């Protein structure tokens, strides 16, 4: 299972790639996509939507279940990966390339984990 060190992680199995101090892309981890199985649909937030840390703002639907995605930050949705509308399965194929959404004007970013810290979370759940 892949856990790149150049991104940060959340206990809820999302990864975060900081573009700068106040902007980051968010996706789901390799562990999350493996647990979900084949992804068949992704519902993303609206660009310009103001979000508060912990809000449920997206859904990933697989052949097994629907999983809610929560925003790890307070901020504003600045981009979505609209390629996922036609190819949601690309999240399974390359979870660390196929991000879900981007948040700008970020605050509340204290809960991010390193790859090693996230590894411990995964081991506890396995």
Outline of the structure:
By secondary structure, this protein is α+β, with helices and mostly antiparallel strands.
Would you write up a description of this structure?
The protein has 126 residues and is an alpha+beta fold. The strands form two sheets. It has a six-stranded antiparallel β-sheet with strand order 1-2-3-9-8-5. It contains three helices and nine strands, in the order E-E-E-H-E-E-E-E-E-H-E-H. It has one domain (8-125): RNA polymerase II/Efflux pump adaptor protein, barrel-sandwich hybrid domain (OB fold (Dihydrolipoamide Acetyltransferase, E2P)). It is 17% helix and 38% strand.
Total count of domains: 1
- Secondary-structure-based class equals alpha+beta
What is the architecture at the second tier of CATH?
Answer: Beta Barrel
Q: Flag low-confidence runs.
A: none
Q: What is the first-to-last residue Cα distance? A: 13 Å
Q: How helical, in percent, are the residues?
A: 10-25%
- How much strand content do the residues show? 35-45%
Order of helices and strands: EEEHEEEEEHEH
Fourth CATH level, the homologous superfamily: RNA polymerase II/Efflux pump adaptor protein, barrel-sandwich hybrid domain
| Strand tally | 9
Query: What is the CATH class name?
Result: Mainly Beta
Give me the Rg, rounded: 13 Å
Individual helix count = 3
Strand arrangement, major sheet: 1-2-3-9-8-5
- CATH topology (level 3) name: OB fold (Dihydrolipoamide Acetyltransferase, E2P)
Main sheet characteristics: 6 strands, antiparallel
Shape: globular
Query: Averaged pLDDT, please?
Result: 93
């Amino acid at each position: 299972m892949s856990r790149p060190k150049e991104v940060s992680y959340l206990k809820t199995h999302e990864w975060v790639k900081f573009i700068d101090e106040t902007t980051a892309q968010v996706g789901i981890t390799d562990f999350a996509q493996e647990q979900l199985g084949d992804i068949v649909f992704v519902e993303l937030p609206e660009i310009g939507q103001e979000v508060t840390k912990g809000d449920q703002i997206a859904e990933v639907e697989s052949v097994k279940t629907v999983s809610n995605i929560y925003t790890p930050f307070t901020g504003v949705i600045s981009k979505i990966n609209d390629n996922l509308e036609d190819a949601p399965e690309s999240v399974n194929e390359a979870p660390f390339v196929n991000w879900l959404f981007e948040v700008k004007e970020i605050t509340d970013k204290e809960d991010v984990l390193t790859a090693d810290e996230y590894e411990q979370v995964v081991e506890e759940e396995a």
